[in-house]
Structures are given as structure tokens and as C-alpha cells.
Write a structure and sequence with these properties.
alpha/beta; Rossmann fold; six-stranded mixed beta sheet; five-stranded parallel beta sheet; binds iron/sulfur cluster
Length: 420
């Protein structure tokens, strides 16, 4: 079962009768001689067990010299001069936890091997996301909780739960915010109607809308103000799109793709402008704009692209590594538009790709035969999650880390005055 170059034969570990239906996933292995071996792949093991419906706990696991232990298993992996381990123990009951633990260990050991991780750069946080998180963090530091935030401040489950643990309260709509309280608007922006409701409820608003989203709102007002029909290219239901549509709802129509363009009927085809969501796929959007230009030869657009620098850079950086990779992993949450676009881009480049919230989402079957893993992260995903993925993979065998930087980003946005 272990990979011949990287894993020692299985060593029994002390079974744990106190676990009662759950499985202990080892953070470190404690040898009979007092030695300790770290288990950096613990998150991988725990994630697979959770997918198999097993409750997990984390902690140290004692290795046992005696053969015959029936519900504990530990393996040492040689990762190129550094030994790491994988270990599980169950309670020895009939809950099914132990067979699941054994199968999980077998699945991960089957894909234990040395790997190269190709890191796309730029990746992870953009300036707009950093600013939005800083807004909430500064308010919490200065005023303490609760600080209300309308919608997720950025589309990332880890960012949201970190801020929640510090006192942020995330609400869907403003009627959940007590009258007179402070509320932060998320990086994705809101429509004028939301600002008006906040004023009616006498809320103290701190607007964390990304300046590059605010630019698109300003264009929507300007284009509609000169009498144009505004065609917004974007995804229906996305918060950013809802906010932009709200700037000139009577004058704006949403299209998602070239098929929507074909169906468009506009009263005055000579007065048409387009805008886009900031986080779209660059290539696909260009095709929609071309379809619009074909249909409306006098079409006007923004002076500079609405798809933002961060979205563009992350897509170009991924393109630079996708073809060389056996597998692409994109760190980001399922509701993160730019992260989902990265997965789609890698697939269009011909490489299997998966979106992961964190290392625990990686499935062993994805790694089979994958010696080169391309790794990136959407603009709302914290850099520490990327490092955690690399660390977890290093628990399965030596990892050679290769950075592929296509450009440097030095854009920073100042905080709104209310948050300074
Ligand atoms: S992805 Fe672009 S538009 Fe969105 S917050 Fe980041 S910089 Fe702003």
C-alpha cells in the first residue's frame, strides 16, 4: 500500500477506546522512544474522513511497537531528508469509523509521492479585498463588536468566519441591523436603494465597496445619464451585478453570454453602451463584446476595462502554468466569481481543475498520477490557505515549490475615512 519510495511499512498505533464513533487524526506521532513526528497531511486525512461521514478529532497519536493493534494505524513517510507521518485511531466499536479510517489511510498512501507545485503569481488577495477586510478589522479594533456587515464582506468562508470570531455580525439585509448601528457594505457594492434604506434606518454606513466596482457604478450612471441603454455583461444574481443594475434600473439590461446578445431587442440601437462585472473571464467577455459590436455598430464602452487588474492578472498567471500542470487547484469559495472563473480557465486550457476552500477539500483520487500541481487562489482567498495546501501536500512526499510570477502588483487602496 505505501509508495515504495516514500512510505515506511505500516506501523501499528495505539487504539483509542475513548473515541466512541469518531476518529482521531494525528497531528503528530509519538514514538515509543519519545520521538515526535509531525503529520502535515492531517488536514487531508481529516477532510476525506468527513466526506465519508466520520466525525474527526485532532491530536497526538502514540505509536505502538506491539503488532496486532486493531484500531490504530500510523505510517512514516520519507519526504526527502525529513520524516513526516500519517496516523489515525478509532475507538474499536462497531460504528464503522475504523473501516473508514483504514480506507482513508489507504487512499492517501496510494498517492504519496514527491511532487512539484507550480505557483501562479499573482494569486490570492487583491487590493479591494484587503481594503474591505481592513475596514471591518479596524472598526472591530477601534470600537469592538458587534460590527454589522451586509452580506459577506468578501466571498470567502474563512475570511468571514475569522471576522465573525472577532465580533463581526454578517446579515443578509439591513432590517436585521438595529436602528442606529454601524453597518459595513461589502466589497461588491450596493445599489442606491440600499443606501437609501440605510439612511431611513439611521444606520452609520462604512462603505467598503472596492473602488474598481465603484468605477463601474459611476459609468452606469454616466452612460444612462446621456440617454444610452446600458448593457451590463455579468452573472445574474451576483451581488456586484445587483448593485450595478440598481444604479440605473430602467436603462440597464443584463446579458450573460453571446446567446443573450442574439435575443436583445433595444428601442434605439444607436445609443447603446456596455459595462462588465469586474470578475469575469477575460476571453469569454471579449467574445460577448464582439457579439455586441456586431449587433450594435455604434456601441460604446468604458474608457478602460471593467474587468479589474486583479482578475486579469490571476487569469494570465494561471494560463502560464496550466498547460504544464497535471492538475490545477484553485483556493477559493464556491460563491467567489473570480475563483470559479480560474477553474473554468484551467479546464479550457485542458487541465483538470478543482476549487477548494482549503486543504481539507482535496480528494485523494485527484492526486493519482499528478506529479505537477498548479496552484493558485482567487482574489478573496487568504494567502495562508495556499501555504497550508503546500504544507499538506508535503506530508505525502517531498514538494518542490516553483513560483511563476508574470507581473508584480503594487496597487493599494486607502481606507474610507470612517474606518481610519
Ligand atoms: S477582484 Fe478586482 S474589483 Fe473585486 S475587490 Fe478585487 S480589485 Fe476590486
Amino acid at each position: 500500500m505505501p509508495h515504495p519510495h516514500t512510505a515506511d511499512p505500516l506501523t501499528n498505533a495505539t487504539p483509542r477506546r475513548d473515541l466512541a464513533g469518531s476518529v482521531l487524526v494525528a497531528d503528530e506521532l509519538l514514538g515509543p522512544d519519545g520521538s515526535t513526528t509531525p503529520c502535515p497531511a492531517a488536514e487531508l486525512v481529516a477532510g476525506e474522513l468527513r466526506r465519508r461521514g466520520v466525525t474527526t478529532v485532532r491530536g497526538p497519536l502514540g505509536m505502538d511497537d506491539e503488532p496486532g493493534a486493531e484500531s490504530g494505524l500510523a505510517v512514516l513517510v520519507d519526504t526527502g531528508g525529513r520524516r513526516t507521518g500519517l496516523g489515525v485511531a478509532a475507538g474499536g466499536d462497531d460504528s464503522g469509523a475504523w473501516p473508514a479510517a483504514r480506507a482513508t489511510m489507504a487512499a492517501w498512501l496510494a498517492v504519496a509521492q514527491p511532487r512539484t507545485v507550480l505557483l501562479a503569481s499573482p494569486r490570492s488577495f487583491c487590493a479591494g479585498v484587503e481594503r474591505a477586510i481592513d475596514v471591518v478589522a479596524h472598526l472591530l479594533d477601534r470600537r469592538g463588536g458587534p460590527i454589522y456587515v451586509r452580506k459577506q464582506i468578501v466571498h470567502n468562508t474563512h475570511v468571514v468566519s475569522d471576522l465573525e470570531s472577532r465580533g463581526a455580525v454578517f446579515v443578509e439585509e439591513l432590517d436585521e441591523v438595529p436602528v442606529g448601528a454601524t453597518v459595513v457594505f461589502s466589497a461588491h457594492g450596493v445599489s442606491p436603494a440600499v443606501h437609501e434604506e440605510a439612511a431611513r434606518r439611521e444606520l452609520a454606513v462604512v462603505d467598503a465597496t472596492c473602488p474598481l466596482v465603484a468605477k463601474v457604478h459611476a459609468e452606469a450612471r454616466r452612460f444612462a445619464g446621456r440617454g444610452d441603454t446600458v448593457i451590463l455583461i455579468g452573472h445574474a444574481g451576483h451581488e456586484e451585478v445587483e448593485g450595478t443594475l440598481g444604479e440605473a434600473p430602467a436603462s440597464t439590461v443584463l446579458v450573460e453570454d453571446a446567446a443573450d446578445v442574439a435575443d436583445l431587442r433595444i428601442d434605439d440601437p444607436g445609443r447603446v453602451s456596455y459595462l462588465t462585472q469586474t470578475t469575469l473571464a477575460v476571453d469569454e467577455t471579449a467574445a460577448v463584446v464582439t457579439a455586441l459590436q456586431d449587433k450594435f455598430p455604434r456601441l460604446r464602452g468604458p474608457a478602460s476595462d471593467d474587468i479589474c487588474y486583479a482578475t486579469t492578472n490571476r487569469q494570465n498567471a494561471l494560463k502560464a502554468i496550466a498547460e504544464e500542470s497535471d492538475l490545477v487547484l484553485v483556493v477559493g469559495s464556491a460563491n467567489s466569481s473570480n475563483s470559479v472563473r480560474l477553474v473554468e480557465l484551467a479546464e479550457r486550457e485542458g487541465t483538470p481543475a478543482h476549487l477548494i476552500d482549503d486543504a481539507g477539500d482535496i480528494r485523494p483520487e485527484w492526486l493519482a498520477g499528478a506529479g505537477v500541481i498548479g496552484l493558485t487562489a482567487g482574489a478573496s482567498a487568504p494567502p495562508r490557505l495556499v501555504e497550508a495546501v503546500i504544507a499538506a501536500l508535503a506530508g505525502l512526499g517531498r514538494v518542490t515549490r516553483v513560483e511563476r510570477e508574470i507581473t508584480q502588483e503594487d496597487i493599494r487602496f486607502t481606507l474610507p475615512s470612517a474606518a481610519r
